[in-house]
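Check this.
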Amino acid sequence: MTCQTVKFADIQAAEKALKGSIIETPLNKSVTLSKLMDAEIYLKFENLQFTASFKERGALNKLINISDTQKKNGVIAASAGNHAQGVAYHGNRLGIPTTIVMPVNTPFVKVRQTEEHGANVVLYGERFDETAVYAANLALERNLTLVHPFDDYSVIAGQGTIGLEIMKACPDLDIIVVPVGGGGLISGVAIAAKHINPNIKIIGVQAERFPSLHRAIHNNEYVSKGSSLAEGIAVKNIGEKTFEICKNFVDDVLLVSETALEEALCMLMTIEKTVPEGAGAAPLAAIKSYPEIFKGKKVALIISGGNIDPRLLASLLMRGLVREGRITRLRIELLDVPGALAQIAKIIGDLGGNIIDVSHHRLFTELPAKETYSNVTLETRDKENLQDILDGLRNAGFIVHTNRASDL
């Protein structure tokens, strides 16, 4: 591409070029989420791509549009996640040598997956900023073509094919909600969607801890706030090219909390039976956090990817059960006499609770010598069932504390 911006025709050309090499992912209406959110909700399942992320669209379009000489010399990208997978996978398919530079602390599983796609992986830098600078220098040194994860017109056009697919499937949408990191996805989607329907609203969503686009629009200083569940959009700065596009095509940018991201991810897992990563859950988190904006509207949410660490996913699901009152830890004070623990177990069992774990404490306690306490972890149907069990234990004379501050 030689143009100094991205035109609708570029996105149409990308759609033709990508056809047969990427999955045209479904846009499905969620009946349950529509009822819960009081809006007509459609989900675009980009987590169903081969590399489980939309990123391979832009990566492939860039690889297709470089010269034969550049293809022969090879490409390089700085990424620790989805962009790396997309460049490596399609580079291997097209016979283009690929080098991926990753931070030294990148989880081994991501390094291995990238190598399995045929890429040469170079580990450099503690922080991604260092990694990106090193990749740019290496590109010059080895005469490699740099494939930027978002601030590149060919990449933006590739991501824009998602907007085309959404509008073809549901042309009368009111809003498309897009997760935003560096801005490549929302830029492409906005150009495509607004060309087809100038009245549609494009709303970006970012984690509160990494408000790259929101900060740029409002001219705020960047303040580092640690990590985010939505690591795929945890980008410090919006791209220069993407920011210019966003200023003209994006209607609003919403910020969501880490708690909202967790809850949205668990909802997509339990309701839609789909695995999103944190960034992929961000659009639903926005609907939950700002219901007044979306009430009664026809809304498409882009589930941008599904690459999430299994250990983190397991932890999130368990935390979700705790929030719902389905798993709770009780601290129960009782007399240190035979049968006391059995009485507790009977009350819990009779009221429908399932004891998962029990630890009994006699020595490390400030209670009188004839008293002790037990930590009981139990599973219940819901918050109401938990309250019934709490009432039953307290009515039997036991002093009960829970891991919920409101019940202490």
Remarks:
- The chain has three domains: 8-53+155-319, 55-146, 326-407.
- The longest helix spans residues 153-169.
- DSSP finds 17 helices and 14 strands in the chain.
